[in-house]
Specification:
eight-stranded mixed β-sheet; single chain; Dihydrofolate Reductase, subunit A; two-stranded antiparallel ribbon; globular; alpha/beta
């Protein structure tokens, strides 16, 4: 049976990106980059918006405000291009142009449930906030990992990650600090039907 990992990189205040900031907020270091390179192979799951963004980067589109990719960003996009990817969308048209992508049109929750039951190895999300939220609500997420970068983007932050989430109890299973400043925390999540003291009035 496959394991499902929801995997986010965030600012300290829970944003997935920020206007005027480069990838990794420009704060990645050698320890973090080495750890990224050591990650096991996984099938990457994403929605249409993440596909459009990342496939654009793979085709050479550069984020607004940058003249070119930094080497670390380029290496990350190249690695993702080589990975097996499943894209959930009813709006995209097949065949997808980005290498190693499979388009799935049916309900993502049911499709991932079937993938977990029939597959082996690791399934991992990239971006795709609404997809991750749906998979968590359905109780399909085995591990929830967040790498927090030491920046608060209260004025420029975009894509608030946890808006619309249910209440979730988190049991820590791993933690690590990279380069003396980047914090990884990994949890086993359990969706709560109500807060510990009962349903709020």
């Amino acid at each position: 049976m496959s394991e499902l990992l929801v995997d986010f990189i965030t600012s300290l205040d829970g944003y997935a990106s920020g206007e005027g900031w480069s990838g990794f907020w420009g704060l990645e270091g050698p320890e973090y980059l080495a750890w990224l390179g050591e990650q096991p192979e996984s099938t990457q799951l994403m929605g249409a918006n993440t596909y459009r963004l990342m496939s654009g980067f793979a085709a050479g589109e550069v984020p607004d405000g940058q003249d070119e990719f930094r080497p670390e960003e380029e290496a990350s996009v190249d690695e993702l291009t080589r990975a097996s990817k499943v894209v959930f969308s009813s709006s995209l048209e097949a065949p997808l142009t980005w290498a190693n992508c499979t388009l799935v049109r049916e309900d993502a929750v049911e499709a991932v449930r079937a993938m977990k039951s029939s597959g082996v190895g690791l399934l991992s999300t990239i971006g795709s906030l609404s997809l991750c939220r749906s998979l968590l609500r359905a109780g399909l997420v085995d591990r929830f990992r967040v790498v927090m970068f030491p920046v608060i983007t209260g004025a420029t932050g975009a894509e608030r990650i946890y808006d619309g989430y249910p209440d979730v109890a988190l049991e820590m299973v791993d933690h690590r600090t990279f380069d003396g400043r980047i914090q990884l925390v990994e949890y086993k999540p359990r969706v709560l039907e109500h807060p510990p003291l009962g349903v709020p009035a």
